[in-house]
Amino acid sequence: MALDLSGVQRVVEGFLTDSLQLWRDVRGETDDVLDEETGVLGPETRAELIWEGTGAVVLSGLPAASPPLDAAVADVPSGSTYQGLLPLGVPSVQSSDLLIVMASIRDTQLVRCRFRITGVGHSSFAVVRVVRLENLGVGRPHPEAER
Question: Phi/psi of residue 84, each to 5°?
Fold first, then answer.
Protein backbone atom coordinates (compact mmCIF):
# COMPACT_ATOMS: atom_id res chain seq x y z
CA MET A 1 0.00 0.00 0.00
CA ALA A 2 1.43 3.35 -1.06
CA LEU A 3 1.50 6.31 1.29
CA ASP A 4 -0.50 9.24 -0.13
CA LEU A 5 1.23 12.51 0.78
CA SER A 6 -0.65 14.74 -1.67
CA GLY A 7 -2.48 16.56 1.15
CA VAL A 8 0.76 17.23 2.99
CA GLN A 9 2.36 18.37 -0.26
CA ARG A 10 -0.44 20.91 -0.86
CA VAL A 11 -0.09 22.31 2.67
CA VAL A 12 3.72 22.58 2.45
CA GLU A 13 3.56 24.22 -0.98
CA GLY A 14 1.21 26.81 0.57
CA PHE A 15 4.16 28.02 2.66
CA LEU A 16 6.34 28.57 -0.41
CA THR A 17 5.80 32.30 -0.88
CA ASP A 18 9.05 33.57 -2.45
CA SER A 19 9.00 34.37 -6.15
CA LEU A 20 11.97 32.52 -7.67
CA GLN A 21 13.64 32.00 -11.02
CA LEU A 22 15.83 29.02 -11.91
CA TRP A 23 18.45 29.56 -14.62
CA ARG A 24 20.74 27.02 -16.28
CA ASP A 25 23.82 27.40 -18.41
CA VAL A 26 22.96 24.62 -20.86
CA ARG A 27 26.14 24.99 -22.91
CA GLY A 28 28.57 25.32 -19.99
CA GLU A 29 29.72 28.73 -21.15
CA THR A 30 28.18 31.19 -18.70
CA ASP A 31 30.14 32.93 -16.02
CA ASP A 32 29.55 36.05 -13.97
CA VAL A 33 30.33 39.30 -15.74
CA LEU A 34 31.37 42.55 -14.09
CA ASP A 35 29.05 45.46 -14.78
CA GLU A 36 31.62 48.26 -14.90
CA GLU A 37 29.01 50.96 -14.24
CA THR A 38 27.69 49.47 -10.98
CA GLY A 39 30.61 47.25 -9.94
CA VAL A 40 28.22 44.31 -9.51
CA LEU A 41 28.85 40.81 -10.79
CA GLY A 42 25.91 39.36 -12.65
CA PRO A 43 25.14 36.36 -14.84
CA GLU A 44 25.71 36.52 -18.58
CA THR A 45 22.82 36.24 -20.98
CA ARG A 46 23.70 32.81 -22.34
CA ALA A 47 21.85 31.07 -19.52
CA GLU A 48 18.27 29.94 -20.07
CA LEU A 49 15.30 30.38 -17.77
CA ILE A 50 14.18 26.88 -16.81
CA TRP A 51 11.49 27.64 -14.27
CA GLU A 52 9.74 30.56 -12.63
CA GLY A 53 7.35 30.21 -9.71
CA THR A 54 6.97 30.13 -5.96
CA GLY A 55 9.37 28.48 -3.55
CA ALA A 56 11.26 29.47 -0.43
CA VAL A 57 14.84 30.31 0.50
CA VAL A 58 15.46 29.60 4.18
CA LEU A 59 18.41 29.43 6.52
CA SER A 60 19.61 25.87 6.97
CA GLY A 61 20.51 24.42 10.34
CA LEU A 62 18.37 26.67 12.46
CA PRO A 63 18.79 25.90 16.16
CA ALA A 64 16.40 23.25 17.40
CA ALA A 65 14.16 23.79 20.42
CA SER A 66 16.05 21.02 22.21
CA PRO A 67 19.63 19.82 21.73
CA PRO A 68 20.22 16.47 20.01
CA LEU A 69 20.41 13.54 22.40
CA ASP A 70 23.77 12.36 21.16
CA ALA A 71 25.28 15.89 20.89
CA ALA A 72 25.97 15.20 17.19
CA VAL A 73 26.97 18.08 14.99
CA ALA A 74 25.51 18.27 11.51
CA ASP A 75 28.03 18.00 8.70
CA VAL A 76 26.99 20.96 6.56
CA PRO A 77 29.43 22.14 3.90
CA SER A 78 30.57 25.73 4.39
CA GLY A 79 28.85 28.15 2.10
CA SER A 80 25.55 26.28 2.28
CA THR A 81 23.95 28.52 4.90
CA TYR A 82 20.75 28.60 2.86
CA GLN A 83 18.42 25.94 1.52
CA GLY A 84 15.95 26.28 -1.29
CA LEU A 85 12.53 24.65 -0.98
CA LEU A 86 11.02 24.04 -4.40
CA PRO A 87 7.77 22.38 -5.45
CA LEU A 88 8.14 18.84 -6.74
CA GLY A 89 6.85 19.97 -10.13
CA VAL A 90 10.03 21.96 -10.82
CA PRO A 91 12.05 20.54 -13.73
CA SER A 92 15.12 18.54 -12.78
CA VAL A 93 17.49 20.70 -10.73
CA GLN A 94 21.24 20.38 -11.25
CA SER A 95 24.24 21.51 -9.25
CA SER A 96 25.50 24.85 -10.55
CA ASP A 97 22.01 26.05 -11.57
CA LEU A 98 21.35 29.65 -10.53
CA LEU A 99 18.39 30.53 -8.28
CA ILE A 100 17.35 34.19 -8.09
CA VAL A 101 14.88 35.55 -5.52
CA MET A 102 12.65 38.03 -7.33
CA ALA A 103 10.32 38.78 -4.37
CA SER A 104 9.95 37.64 -0.77
CA ILE A 105 7.33 38.57 1.80
CA ARG A 106 9.13 36.65 4.59
CA ASP A 107 12.57 38.25 4.19
CA THR A 108 12.86 41.34 2.00
CA GLN A 109 16.67 41.22 2.28
CA LEU A 110 16.62 38.15 0.03
CA VAL A 111 15.14 40.10 -2.89
CA ARG A 112 17.61 40.09 -5.82
CA CYS A 113 19.88 37.62 -4.00
CA ARG A 114 21.45 35.06 -6.26
CA PHE A 115 22.28 31.54 -5.16
CA ARG A 116 24.16 28.74 -6.89
CA ILE A 117 22.73 25.29 -6.25
CA THR A 118 25.44 23.12 -4.69
CA GLY A 119 23.44 19.98 -4.00
CA VAL A 120 20.02 18.40 -4.34
CA GLY A 121 18.55 16.57 -1.37
CA HIS A 122 16.65 13.31 -1.62
CA SER A 123 13.98 12.04 0.73
CA SER A 124 12.01 8.84 1.08
CA PHE A 125 8.77 10.78 1.54
CA ALA A 126 9.22 13.86 -0.60
CA VAL A 127 6.66 16.65 -0.42
CA VAL A 128 9.08 19.41 -1.43
CA ARG A 129 12.44 19.45 -3.22
CA VAL A 130 15.28 20.66 -0.94
CA VAL A 131 18.46 22.09 -2.49
CA ARG A 132 21.61 23.41 -0.82
CA LEU A 133 22.52 26.93 -1.88
CA GLU A 134 25.69 28.99 -2.05
CA ASN A 135 24.97 32.69 -1.56
CA LEU A 136 26.42 34.70 -4.44
CA GLY A 137 25.20 37.98 -2.98
CA VAL A 138 22.81 40.61 -4.16
CA GLY A 139 23.01 41.42 -7.81
CA ARG A 140 20.89 42.65 -10.57
CA PRO A 141 18.26 40.24 -11.83
CA HIS A 142 19.29 38.11 -14.77
CA PRO A 143 19.35 40.35 -17.88
CA GLU A 144 16.74 38.25 -19.63
CA ALA A 145 14.50 38.38 -16.53
CA GLU A 146 13.74 42.04 -17.15
CA ARG A 147 11.23 41.31 -19.87
Answer: -105, 135
